[in-house]
Design brief:
This protein has 16 helices and 22 strands.
């Protein structure tokens, strides 16, 4: 599916009139007059009425602009020239002519932004440029980029086949892909495997970002490997599809575990061990732990003895093998996820096909009588929830939690555990502000990777890099590290007040771009409480508003005070384990 002109994009830019206008003519005869900016493989055009048009490079016939110059090829297609550098004009705007103060930095950030897969990272990159480059020309040019990326983030833009897609066209694409995915999965789990695989290929032609399509294509190539002789092409096809699935959803234990099997068949033994180990860190189910055992068992003896990565994994995984009964008597197991209702983006969405404890997340107490906040995708991933709490003696206890609210609109859920008489739980208070100021110190608490890193609260530190308003599910961006298992945990300011609920992380597209933690602000949490006030009246009445202190708490103080308030949530599929019924 070729995306032409994104006619549905209508956004208001924050700082109008900072560049001279130009004209861009499309191959279909459409002409736009306005401020033209290069954005990856497209151009954005800000019109006189403040609206913005996003135009694919392939649809452009010519450009006449004081920044880009006039450039039309003989065939009618445009080959954009190098933008002319900008310098502050007498009117306070920007004019063509003299160079930016930081031309190299500006170009470097442009290159980084062109490679990102989510507009929120583009926002963060340009916000950092604006914050660190104070010369007027730098500020104006950087702010222009920042406003464009904010507009894209607000409209929920997504990069599809190298082009940014937004608005009604993106909704239509998602709707079509969801329908095709449901049909494909139904075929694959029935008796129409070949038709199902063909439909997967059709999906990937129009939407390469589909996790289910990439996963299932890799899965069926993998299954066929054991049935076909001379199957290196099948192995390579499986590896390619599963590697793409992991890039789209890096916390999929199923994709990582199956990828380990494919690596093993290709005799990429170290890759197999590392991939299987990552899977077991996310989900230490019996099948996935057995696949890790097999990956290590198939590795050459010299690798098990001398390869530092493999040696370290062997030492770390021995406890898992003992707990799950892994042995050389069991073979490989191909594992599959259940995609739930969202075929594109949900972290752990839908209930697992396996039974027992199938995953973990984080939550935190928001009232003294046992109400706990976490993410929807944590609460929706299982039939039952077990909360691990620390009592007044410092001992851990497993408590069954009731699902009170699993919100349909936001990634928020409320659980409830029974209060202990005369022993109130230590609750975390919501900050007074709706949005944390950019630059606010933040402490993230939670249980990343579950028991793989030990069963105690882990802490990371950082700052709020940006706060966004728009269609993105998360509006607070921090540079503190988060990982699978952190979902549903608290982001605290330096006074110990909640500034956001951890929801997800971004994926770094290369080593020059860091990943970021994403959270849901207290302002959005308050709107959630207002929307659910009929069901949450008991907890709303007991919510306390956090106060800004006079003295900032140290990280050690925050850890000491709020470790008991932060809880691990075990996700149970099927019936509760014995002893907890």
């Amino acid at each position: 599916m070729r995306i032409h002109l994104l006619r549905s994009v209508v956004v208001s830019l924050l700082v109008p009139g900072f560049l001279l206008g130009g004209t861009i003519t499309l191959k279909d005869g459409t002409v736009y007059d306005g401020v033209i900016k290069k954005l990856g493989s497209s151009y954005s055009v800000k019109l006189a009425d403040g609206t913005m048009k996003l135009v694919a490079n392939a649809d452009v016939k010519s450009i006449d602009d004081p920044v880009f110059g006039t450039n039309t090829s003989a065939s009618g297609s445009t080959t954009p020239g190098t933008p002319k550098p900008l310098t502050p004009g007498a009117s306070g705007g920007a004019t063509a002519g003299a160079p930016l103060t930081s031309t190299d930095d500006f170009a470097r950030v442009q290159r980084q932004a062109d490679r990102v897969d989510t507009p929120l990272i583009g926002v963060t990159l340009w916000q950092k440029f604006v914050d660190t480059h104070k010369q007027p020309a730098d500020q104006k040019a950087g702010q222009a980029e920042l406003d464009t990326w904010k507009a894209m983030a607000k409209d929920g833009a997504e990069k599809v086949k190298g082009k940014w897609v937004v608005g009604d066209e993106l909704k239509a694409l998602h709707k079509k892909v969801d329908k095709l995915t449901e049909e494909a999965v139904k075929m694959l789990r029935g008796d129409q495997t070949l038709n199902g695989v063909k439909k997967l290929e059709d999906i990937l032609k129009i939407y390469p970002n589909s996790f289910p399509a990439n996963f299932e294509k890799g899965y069926y190539s993998l299954v066929k490997i054991t049935r076909v002789e001379g199957s290196n092409k099948l192995i390579d096809d499986s590896i390619s599809s599963l590697e793409t699935a992991v890039k789209i959803k890096p916390n999929s234990a199923e994709a990582l575990s199956n990828l380990a099997i494919a690596y093993n068949w290709r005799r990429r033994y170290e890759d197999a061990v590392v991939s299987a180990y990552k899977a077991a860190q996310i989900d230490d189910s019996k099948e996935i732990v057995q696949n890790l055992y097999n990956a290590l068992d198939n590795a050459p003896p010299g690798m098990r003895k001398n390869n530092p990565k493999v040696v370290a994994i062997m030492a770390d995984a021995s406890v898992l093998f003992s707990r799950r009964g892994a042995s050389d008597k069991a073979g490989w197991t191909y594992v599959r996820p259940d995609y739930g209702s969202d075929h594109r983006h949900s972290e752990g969405a839908g209930k697992s096909e396996r039974k027992g404890i199938v995953g973990s997340g984080t939550g935190f107490l928001i009232s003294a009588d046992g109400y706990i906040m976490t993410n929807r995708h944590v609460a929706a991933a299982g039939d039952k929830m077990i909360v691990k709490i620390t009592d007044e003696k410092g001992e851990e206890k497993n408590v069954v939690a009731e699902k009170v609210i699993v919100d349909d609109d936001q990634d928020i859920a409320i659980l409830k555990i029974e209060p202990v008489k005369d022993k109130p739980y230590a609750a975390i208070k919501l900050a007074e502000y709706d949005e944390p100021p950019v630059g606010t110190d933040v402490t993230v608490m939670g249980f990343p990777l579950g028991y793989a890193m030990g069963g105690h609260v882990k802490i990371t530190r950082g700052v709020v890099t940006s706060v966004e308003d728009g269609k993105q599910e998360c509006d607070v961006i921090v540079d503190a590290q988060v990982n699978p298992g952190n979902s549903g945990g608290p982001m605290l300011d330096k006074y110990g007040n909640l500034l956001a609920l951890v929801a997800m992380k971004t994926l770094a597209v290369d080593e020059s771009i860091s990943s970021y933690g994403l959270g849901i602000s207290t302002g959005r949490l308050r709107k959630f409480f207002e929307h659910q006030k009929d069901k949450l009246k008991p907890v709303i009445e007991k919510l306390e508003k956090g106060k800004k202190g006079t003295t900032a708490m140290t990280t050690e103080d925050i850890a000491t005070q709020f470790t008991k308030s932060t809880v691990m949530i075990l996700i149970v599929s099927g019936e509760l384990p014995e002893g907890l019924k």
